[in-house]
Specification:
The structure holds two protein chains of two kinds. In chain A, 46% of the residues lie in helices and 12% in strands. By secondary structure, chain A is an alpha+beta fold. Chain B has four domains: 98 residues, 3-Layer(aba) Sandwich (Glutaredoxin), CATH 3.40.30; 205 residues, 3-Layer(aba) Sandwich (Rossmann fold); 91 residues, Ubiquitin-like (UB roll); 93 residues, NADH-ubiquinone oxidoreductase 51kDa subunit, iron-sulphur binding domain (de novo design (two linked rop proteins)), CATH 1.20.1440.230. The radius of gyration of chain B is 24 Å and the shape is globular. Chain B starts with a strand and ends with a helix. The chains are: A alpha+beta, B alpha/beta.
Chain lengths: 155, 513
């Protein structure tokens, strides 16, 4: 479970990377792991801690798709939309998956249970279509997989 | 007697239930009172057969697949050895035609060894390349790499030896080896397989590179979409440190960096920016990274496959490697057959085989059973090839001569249901999503490209808009700072040129009637 933003924990994260060159990305990954997303106060805090401008921190956070500005659902499903998955009708399957939960790309269900995001390649291209649920790889997806994922996230 | 079973822990095997198979094997063996040991390996790369289980036998390993957890009781029902009449029996893995026809040099150990066992790695030839490099000295080590003819396996195909020489010749207080493991091309998984299946091969290659050019520190930049690979490689680095393969005694350290979901970071200068803690924006060249790279120091930036091939070259000698291949493409290339293909997987073979052989013969055609209509070679920036060009040899120059590229070796197969106008649109859309925004042709051109192709799809002034797309592609090709904007025209223009019928559409209103 992720904790609420607090400077003590953030300080501990920054110290963990003390002496590391160009540490902003590893720090942001740790911040997101700790708090579930990159909270607004983290921008100012990290700018101060690393002696860089707030604009620089904001620029990095907003550049990379992984860094969230708000909390995601309890489960995160990443569906691959790249060519290998397209060739196996991944787009149609993704549409059915989104419809099943009444979501659009990047959306979270009202009960906060599930977020569905697009990803561009998981390296499972010989077993398309593929996805990742909470960091676990899934491949050769079909309509049965939609039910399986629904069961998993509503458990 | 304990019988050893081998079950892959490669992400693509786990994605189709390999963990459950491993658990079921242990449980069922215990239930039946059979003594077994389950070893988790990388994948052999025969993904249509995953989860592929191998069992040790006096005549070598015997493979079964694809095995589901529910097959396990049946597999062990008759005791050991498992009968050759079992429906999932595949025989010796080396005799499966897909594997038998390969030349596995870089991937020699992948799928065979326990990826996190240094003893297993050494027993299968690991460390011999580094040993020989140390006996040759840095200068001769570098010469070996140059003479092998090895070229960058990331896509650009730049001679590895020349890159190393440039860094070796540079004088600086520090130098770096950076491994580009930001394998973002759809249809590719070679880097991922090695990180998960033979991580010490990469570590050995990087130590050799550092030794040859005088660098003491290496970074491995792995994309965040590969959590299994990040985990496996991180463990391998820690094991190597304890072992002494890395660390003060070895004169080389490796730090793992994880990307954050940006395709453009696979471009070497954007990757360096990202390691330095900034937005992954492309740098203008010159200066080359070999002169001024990471933190302003001379830096070797190599693709993972290039670095992981170096130990074999050093162990067996430059000539042994250069014997394979054709023309200026020497050695082997791990080709990745993906998408709508029956036998998808990793096919390492000497350069020179034709695209048709790969797709039809080794790959077995489309998985859907329909005719293959198009294949995209080299990732999202690679050209689409029609059947008429299936005689193209897999070779850097042969693909370039046909307005294509081999890139990182990904081959994505599409059957005859594909709409090539949609694929051309996606190429532009992908470029728009992933553009770092630094140069105008890529940032703006890709968005205008999507809009214009949308008009073509709607049947609005097709001829005029096709001319506009072509003109736009020229601008992107010659005006972009890096390959993202510069190569997006490859899939777009190849789709238009080879599949013109898909771009002639009736106006949308008419089609709806």
């Amino acid at each position: 479970m992720s904790s609420r933003w607090n400077e003590a924990e953030a300080t501990e994260i920054v110290c963990r990377h003390d002496g590391r060159e160009g540490a902003l990305l590893p720090i942001l990954h740790d911040v997101q792991a700790a708090f579930g997303f990159v909270p607004e106060p983290a921008i100012k805090f990290l700018a101060h801690a690393l002696n860089i401008t707030r604009a620089e921190v904001h620029g990095v956070v907003s550049f990379y798709r992984d860094f969230r500005r708000e909390r995601a659902g309890r489960h995160v499903l990443k569906l691959c939309r790249a060519e290998a998955c397209q060739s196996m009708d991944g787009e149609a399957l993704a549409r059915r998956m989104l419809d099943r939960f009444g979501l659009d790309w990047g959306g979270t269900t009202p009960d906060g249970r599930l977020t569905i995001e697009a990803t561009y390649c998981l390296g499972l291209c010989a077993s398309a279509p593929s996805a990742m649920l909470d960091g676990e790889p899934m491949a050769r997806l079909n309509d049965g997989s939609i039910d399986e994922i629904a069961r998993e996230v509503t458990r | 007697m304990t019988t050893r079973f081998f079950v892959p822990c490669d992400a693509a095997a786990r994605a189709v239930g390999a963990d459950k198979v491993a658990i079921a094997l242990r449980a069922e063996a215990e239930r039946q009172g059979i003594e077994i040991e389950v070893v988790r390996t990388g994948s052999r790369g025969l993904f249509w057969l995953e989860p592929m289980v191998e069992v040790e036998s006096p005549g070598g390993r015997i493979a079964f697949g694809p095995v589901a957890a529910r097959d396990v009781p049946g597999l062990l029902a008759g005791g050991l050895p498992i009968g050759t009449r079992h429906p999932l029996y595949l025989g010796r893995p080396e005799d499966i035609p897909f594997l038998k026809r390969q030349t596995r040099l870089t991937f020699a150990r992948c799928g065979i060894v326990d990826p996190l066992s240094l003893a297993d790695w050494r027993a299968h030839g690991g460390g011999r390349g580094l040993e020989r490099a140390r006996s040759l000295g840095p200068v001769k080590t570098l010469e070996e790499v140059t003479r092998s003819g090895l070229r960058g396996r990331g896509g650009a195909g730049f001679p590895t030896g020349i890159k190393w020489q440039t860094v070796a010749d540079a004088s600086a207080d520090r130098k770096y080896i950076v491994c580009n493991a930001d394998e973002g091309d759809s249809g590719t998984f070679a880097d991922r397989m090695l990180l998960e299946g033979d991580p010490f091969a990469l570590i050995e290659g990087m130590v050799i590179a550092g030794f040859a050019v005088g660098a003491a520190k290496g970074f491995v930049y792995i994309r965040s979409e590969y959590p299994d690979a990040v985990r496996a490689f991180g463990r391998a680095v820690r094991l190597a440190e304890v072992d002494g393969l890395l660390g003060a005694g070895a004169g080389f350290d490796i730090e793992v960096r994880v990307g954050a979901g940006a395709y453009v970071c696979g471009e070497e200068t954007a990757l360096l920016e990202s390691i330095e803690g900034r937005r992954g924006q492309v740098r203008a060249k010159p200066p080359l990274p070999a002169h001024r790279g990471l933190f302003g120091r001379p830096t070797v930036v190599n693709n993972l496959v290039s670095l992981a091939t170096v130990p074999w070259i050093l162990a067996e000698g430059a000539e042994a490697y250069a014997v394979f291949g054709m023309g200026r493409s020497r050695g082997t290339m791990p080709i990745q057959l993906a998408g709508n293909i029956r036998h998808g997987g990793l096919f390492e073979s000497a350069f020179g085989g034709t695209l048709g052989e790969l797709v039809d013969e080794f790959g077995g055609g489309a998985r859907s059973g329909r005719p293959v209509r198009a294949v995209q070679v080299g990732g999202p920036l690679g050209a689409y090839f029609p059947r008429a060009l299936f005689d193209t040899a897999f070779d850097y120059e042969a693909f370039a001569a046909r307005d294509g590229l081999i890139g990182h070796g990904g081959v994505v197969v599409f059957d005859d249901t594909v709409d090539m106008a949609r694929q051309a649109r996606f190429a532009m859309e992908f470029c728009a999503i992933e553009s770092c925004g630094k140069c105008t042709p890529c940032r703006i051109g890709s968005t205008r490209g999507v809009e214009t192709i949308d008009k073509i799809i709607r049947g609005e002034q097709s001829a005029a808009n096709l001319a506009l797309v072509e003109d736009l592609c020229q601008t992107m090709k010659f005006g972009s700072l890096c390959a993202l904007g510069g190569f997006t025209p490859y899939p777009v223009m190849s789709a238009i040129r080879h599949f013109p019928e898909d771009f002639v559409r009736p106006p949308l209103g008419v089609a709806a009637e």
